[in-house]
Write a structure and sequence with these properties.
The complex is a heterodimer of chains A (288) and B (330). With 288 residues, chain A is mainly α. Chain A is built from 11 helices and no strands. Classes of the chains: A mainly alpha (288), B mainly alpha (330). At the A-B interface, helix 4, helix 5, helix 9, helix 10 and helix 11 of A face helix 1, helix 6, helix 7, helix 11 and helix 12 of B. Chain B: One of its GO terms (cellular component) is plasma membrane.
């Protein structure tokens, strides 16, 4: 084994552009993640008051001065879109954290005993049989609208998939030999959950947060588009798009086009991060 | 062969489950709506001028001040008698609104369900068949983009291109303005269905195409395909005999499981095209706090989704020959 094997190492590392898959994946993750963070930070520094109405420049098509054009009140659409994206990402982040926490709690408790397990699986069935959008609408009404309503609504309706994954994982772990051994040694269920199960499902949890994210953002945009939740003054993407609907007939296409494309790109970026993270974190795919 | 006794038992179980589910959904949605700070009396009155006496009467009718369980009991009791209450917006019984709207929506959803199913399956099969070719890349790119695109935005784009720019289709409404719904011709109605159905199909295609492609890829790398290839089977014959047979049932099952998503998509698409369906009614009910209508819609959409899931279960359990065989051998 110690014999130096003259592998054609150079073949893989001669050119700086020919990175190996792992490095490439990490690079993609870092790049996209930093882009997303940059958008959020940027949008935090945009003062809403700088998006002033300027009636001398209404409905301008996209130009270098106004990258995304201006709307019927002369507001710069690029700034508004950026602000809206930041808002969407933050709402999405909170919502996916909520749904992950719910999923972990329910998933772990399903491993505790048979009754809890069937209760959890019934709960998953229950929540996945109400159409998501209606559930979010119901929750946002019950909380009286507002950002909180949207966050809770999206969070509460997205935990089902992750709970299923975690539940299946825990079932598998529970049948393994080391868990049986621990049980025979008289360890409590809680101890087993903490020491054996939690570390193993941590990957799924981290991935879960990121994979839920695109859905959360999209549902957030849909709900605000329908008019629930955020007030019309808030430049959320959904609101920008629903406003633009009124002006479609006049041929002001950029109002709807660019904000939508930017939302699409954000969602794609998140998907990219999620997929690549999965490649790295999931040991079953490690050989690819 | 179908084992009819088994199917009957299975369906019996499912009906019991549905009832339990409906009760749970009713409780949850009732509690949620009851928690809402919105005042039903205020919502009912709207802009009307009413006397204080009238308000008191209305408050009694809506059970203001009563404990929640009493209201819930009252609601469930009248619902068991087929009375879902009166819609606040449309001022007609909720059940009438729902039956009318749901029919319109079902037409829309069914059309796009069929189109997306056939198209998605075809695209997925093609992509899986010519793996790595430009077709595969195109389908993959299409699916990735479409899965990340907000539904309502795609609908907006379609509206912008075909209705505003090209002027091929009207910009909305189920029937032309000024024409009663009964007098609208089939053609009127069809032209208003095309765009919403297209928008909804475009979105639903992505999921099924992606699924079919991955599944076919899996199957194509299995041993029996290798063996079939060794017997010099190739091309379409190989796919037809060994590929499609294996992926058709999972794909159909998935398509039935997507009822919830298609409903969500329909809500958004209907809103954009002002198509007079159940989704639009749900949004209006939510925005203007029409509680009876909203609760009714939630219940009926739950039944709708449940039906899809049950059909998927039946296909999985009783139609799939592999599982059917293994069950009967037990």
């Amino acid at each position: 084994m110690n014999k130096p094997v003259d592998t054609p190492k150079k073949k893989f590392h001669t050119s700086p552009l020919k990175l190996n898959l792992r490095t490439k994946t990490i690079l993609i993750i870092v790049l996209t993640a930093s882009m997303l963070v940059a958008i959020v930070i940027n949008s935090l520094f945009i003062d809403v008051s700088t998006i002033t109405t300027n009636f001398s420049s209404i409905n301008l098509p996209p130009s270098f001065e106004h990258l995304f054009g201006t709307d019927w009140m002369g507001r710069d659409m690029f700034t508004r879109t950026l602000k809206g994206l930041g808002l969407s990402i933050m709402i999405g982040a909170l919502a996916s954290i909520i749904s992950t926490v719910v999923a972990v709690i329910l998933g772990l408790s399903s491993g505790m005993n048979k009754y809890l397990d069937s209760f959890v699986s019934w709960l998953v069935d229950l929540f996945s049989s109400i159409p998501h959008l209606l559930l979010i609408i119901l929750i946002s009404i019950s909380l009286g609208g507002g950002v909180i309503g949207v966050i809770v609504g999206v969070g509460v309706s997205h935990w089902t998939t992750l709970t299923r994954v975690i539940r299946a994982e825990i079932k598998q772990i529970n049948t393994s030999e080391y868990v049986h051994l621990s049980k025979n040694f008289g360890k409590s269920k809680w101890w087993i959950a903490k020491k054996h199960i939690l570390p193993l499902i941590l990957t799924q949890v981290v991935l879960g947060v990121i994979l839920v994210f695109p859905h959360a953002i999209m549902h957030e945009a849909s709900v605000t588009f329908l008019g629930f939740g955020l007030s019309p003054h808030e430049p959320a993407i959904g609101i920008i798009l629903s406003e633009s609907m009124k002006y479609l007939a006049t041929g002001v296409w950029w109002l709807a086009f660019f904000p939508g494309v930017s939302l699409l790109i954000i969602v794609l970026l998140f998907d990219l991060v999620g997929d690549n993270l999965q490649k790295i974190l999931d040991p079953t795919n490690a050989h690819e | 062969m179908f084992n009819y006794r088994k199917v009957a038992i299975f369906l019996g179980h499912k009906i019991v489950r549905l009832i339990i589910l409906l009760v749970a959904v009713a409780i949850i949605s009732f509690v949620l709506v009851d928690m809402s700070p919105v005042d039903p009396v205020r919502a009912y009155i709207g802009e009307m001028a009413v006397s204080g006496e009238h308000i008191a009467k209305l408050q009694e009718y809506w059970g203001v001040g009563q404990p929640m369980w009493e209201k819930a009991l009252h609601w469930v009791w009248s619902m068991l008698h087929g009375d879902f209450g009166t819609s606040l917006i449309y001022r007609i019984p909720v059940i009438d609104v729902i039956s009318e709207r749901f029919t319109a929506s079902l037409v829309l959803m069914f059309t796009s369900w069929v189109i997306s199913g056939v198209l998605g399956f075809t695209l997925g099969t093609l992509a899986g068949m010519y793996r790595g070719s430009w077709i595969d890349k195109f389908v993959k790119g299409y699916c990735y983009v479409l899965l990340s695109a907000p539904t309502f935005w795609i609908a907006l784009l379609l509206l912008m291109v075909f209705s505003v720019y090209l002027g091929w289709f009207p910009t909305g409404l189920g029937v032309p303005a000024g024409v009663l719904a009964e007098n609208a011709t089939f053609w009127d109605w069809l032209t208003r269905l095309i765009l919403p159905a297209t928008a909804l199909s475009i979105l639903c295609v992505a999921q099924i195409a992606m699924f079919t492609r991955d599944k076919l890829n899996n199957i194509m790398s299995s041993d029996f395909i290798l063996f079939a290839k060794a017997r010099s089977e190739k091309g379409w014959g190989l796919i037809k005999r060994h590929g499609i047979r294996n992926i058709l049932i999972p794909a159909i099952t998935l398509q039935f499981l997507s009822f919830s998503e298609i409903f969500g998509g329909a809500v958004l698409v209907e809103q954009v095209f002002s198509y007079p369906g159940i989704g639009q009614a749900a949004v209006a009910a939510g925005l203007r706090s029409d509680v009876p209508l909203l609760l009714g819609i939630v219940l009926f959409s739950t039944i709708f989704v449940f039906c899809g899931n049950t059909i998927a279960d039946i296909i999985y359990k009783f139609v799939d020959p592999r599982i059917r065989e293994s069950e009967s051998n037990e």
